[in-house]
Amino acid sequence: MNKEANVDNIYRLDGKVPLGKAVPFGLQHILAMFVANIAPIIIVAGASGLDTSQSAMLIQSAMVIAGIGTLIQLFPLWKIGSGLPIVMGISFTFVSVFCYIGPTYGYNAIVGAILVGGIIEGILGLFAKYWTKLITPIVAASVVTAIGFSLLSVGASSFGGGSGSEAFGSASNWILGTITLLCCLLFNIFAKSYWKQLSVLFGLAVGYIVALCMGMVDFSALQSTSVVALPSVLPFKPEFNMNAIVSVVLIFLVSATETIGDTSALATSGLDREASPKEISGSLTCDGFISALSSLFGCLPITSFSQNVGLVAMTKVVNRFTIATGAVIMIIAGIFPAFGALLATLPDAVLGGCTIMMFGSIVVSGLRMIGNCGYSQRNITIVALSLSTGIGFTQVPEIFAIFPQVVQNVFAQNCVAVVFLVAIILNLVLPQNMETA
User: Fold this and answer.
1) Any residues with CB less than 8 A from the CB of 281 and at least 6 apart, and which?
2) What is the pLDDT of residues 173-198, one digit of tens each?
3) Residue (of 241, 203, 289, 213) closest to 98 by Cα position
């Protein structure tokens, strides 16, 4: 009886679970987000001109920081953390803006902007009860949809071999990207139950093997890699560029809307109740302050992972100890630099084959959120106008030429920022009842 009770605790937030039962479910959470956790690092590092050894160092830091962030979400420190089974990782939300800031101002400016933005979001999280009413479900839905659309070109660029690559769009990259994508798709079709969550990992593995056979993998970065090492502190000295800071702070606000949605969805689907204001505040505060800590290791912002929220909804495994075993595994993996260096050898086309499907899923998630909000005249107006201006105007950035340079830097290349701003304004000014008689 005692053993059965312990096993049943997997479906309860608290309680002891046998380690042998906890580890597989904890590992499943890490496998479900592993590719998505390292992909932003590889994409942004490539766009910013970092070499493979620097990318490997950042991947190592990303795994350690994601593990620490997850543990703090599970077991809060003071007001930092929600106490919910939220898995943390490197956010895709910032990829498009970093792919602009990195080549323009340098990777050091990215680090400085994350440090400032993370502290601001952390402080805002402490006072979340005063402002979260502005982020209504329809605003969050519009933003998530825009994030998905903004990343499609990033995925396509990786699929072609990486922006600036001499072999961009070559037959070898087309073949590699297509094989990876097909493997992801076929695995998703034929795999059963929670194994479907591993379709991206399967595609990545097959794509990598094919890339090896095609001679498209560079192992030179592995030669100078140590076996065991702690992550480097301040590998990139922060530079505080005002244009970069304003852009990134705005995206931190966008990211906060996603975190609110993830926290609410997890409580509803996993615990059959609404998330409390304290839990939402703790979740946001953890996002912000852990992101600031991440910048000190040269890493990108950390946030809650939506795919893990979906995994909780499907399996109903919410036990904090169980999820914590996965976080510890991630930290241990990050202490072995060779692991990160090996992942950094992943060809762009393989990454593109995996992420193009992943980014499309974000678009669909946003559309599903819009559907859940209902198709009232008010909601349709907010979504239609915010998406049309956000996506349309940023495809013709010259339209912002009359504005000051700081405004151009924030909005001209960043459809998510435009969508967020327009959706917030419309939500504030439009009458609650717009239905025709």
Assistant:
1) 79, 125, 126, 128, 129
2) 999 999 999 998 998 888 876 567 66
3) 241
